[in-house]
Amino acid sequence: MSATLTFPKAKYSTAGITYLMYQKPSIVAWWSAVFPGFGHYLLNQYARATLLTVLEVIINTGANINEAMVYSFCGEIELARSVIHLDWMIGYIVIYLITIGDSYRSAVQLNKYIELSTPDLASVEIFPFEIQYLQNKSPLLGVFYSLFFPGLGQLYNHRIFLGFYAIFWWWIYILLSHAHKAIILTITGDFAYSTAILHPHWLLFMPSVLGGAVYHSYITCVQHNILAKESQQKRLTDRYVGSKFSIRGVKG
Amino acid sequence: MIIVGTFQPSIEIERALSEMEALGVPPEEMMVLYMNEFPPISRKKKASADIHVSSFEIGIAFATGMAVIGASIGFKLILGPIFSGLLAAIIGFFCGYSLYYLFHRKKKNKLSQSLPEIIVLIQSTKEVAPLIKEILWKHKALSVGMRKRL
């Protein structure tokens, strides 16, 4: 017979703290729709989430989905129709929709395990190449870090590989879309030229990634704070039960 | 003597406890107590129970959706896609945030937010009591109380 039905709800690793905590399935599904893989990041399924994001960039680029979106929102339906690569389109739609469905289903399923989990977690854990720890964090600071440069909020939360992964992609988007150059040109008043140099395909990844990075770092801060409190409560109430404590005190 | 200290959750309380143990107070003569709010937040939905967290959740979801549309349309506007996207994101965030907040706002006991959450009770002899008080204050106790045996 197994000794216990419960399991620890969080675990440290070199990459950060991986944990099980309540996630609203509809919110998870929404982030999967914004960028396939982002929903799985919220569920702490970092490996499949990262592979899904790579896949999204490849097949979006193949199918020209972002260009088609720009033309569609601008009302140029004919242009949108002509720019899409039909070889890629059906596969894109299938993977896109099933990723949303899968993240929703996973969120519902993982939420069922929460009541079986216990907050058994030390305050610090030391690895050969990293030190990971829990600390009360400010969610707003996490938001600002990722708002300035996606990935910095993830570093604030000690998700080191995700942090550098996001920073790497953000640089790719900046360099291929010329977004930062366009900002400077707009500020100096050269509106027409700044719009002309922007590359719609790479620019259109940016709002989704920025929003996703901001939300991820915000909710991770909030959930780290809950983990810090719960695990401390477990540690302290287990150790300081006051078995020799009398409310009348000892003589002296 | 009975000494009582109140704390907010942070690593300081653990440093205080370990210092008192080093001073010779056995763990059995200390008691840590966690105070709950009323009504207790259900454990499962703790992360989403706070109204500002949920409002932010909806706000940033709106912002991201609006930013994509704003950036797309921006290619036709004089403002350009970046600023039109950012503007749409800001508008989206405030719309989403305030819509959720206004519909889910409840009357809340504001006092409970500032109350201490953790209480530490220590039983000690008269001699070490001042040292214990000092340790509690040093580690950011919110308040410290002491009284003699009845």
Question: Overview of this structure, please?
Answer:
The complex is a heterodimer of chains A (252) and B (150). In chain A, 65% of the residues lie in helices and 7% in strands. By secondary structure, chain A is mainly alpha-helical. In chain A, the strands form 3 sheets. Chain A has a two-stranded parallel sheet. A two-stranded antiparallel sheet of chain A has the order 2-3. Chain A has a two-stranded antiparallel sheet with strand order 5-6. In chain A, α4 runs antiparallel to α5, α7 packs antiparallel against α13 and α10 packs antiparallel against α11. The longest helix of chain A has 35 residues. The radius of gyration of chain A is 23 Å and the shape is elongated. The longest helix of chain B has 24 residues. Chain B is α+β, with helices and mostly antiparallel strands and 150 residues long. In chain B, 49% of the residues lie in helices and 15% in strands. The N and C termini of chain B lie close together (9 Å). Chain B is built from 5 helices and 4 strands. Chain B is elongated, with a radius of gyration of 25 Å. In chain B, α1 packs antiparallel against α5. Chains A and B meet through α1, α4, α10, α11 and α13 of A and α1, β2, α2, α3 and α4 of B.
Short description, anyone?
Chain A is mostly helical and 252 residues long.
Query: Level of helix content of chain B?
Result: 40-55%
Going by CATH, the architecture of the largest domain in chain B would be 2-Layer Sandwich
Beta strand % of chain A: 5-15%
Portion in helices of chain A: 55-70%
Give, in spatial order, the strands making up the sheet with the most strands of chain A.
1-4
Number of helical runs of chain A? Answer: 13
Shape type of chain A: elongated
Q: Unreliable stretches of chain A, pLDDT < 50, 5 or more residues?
A: none
Uncertain runs of chain B are none
Mean pLDDT of chain B: 84
Beginning-to-end CA distance, first to last residue of chain A:
51 Å
- Major beta-sheet overview of chain A: 2 strands, parallel
* Structural category of chain A: mainly alpha
CATH third-tier fold name of the largest domain in chain B: Alpha-Beta Plaits
SSE series of chain A: EEEHHHHHHEEEHHHHHHH
Helix/strand order of chain B: EHEHHHEHE
**Number of helical segments with 4 or more residues of chain B:** 5
Determine the N-to-C terminus distance of chain B.
9 Å
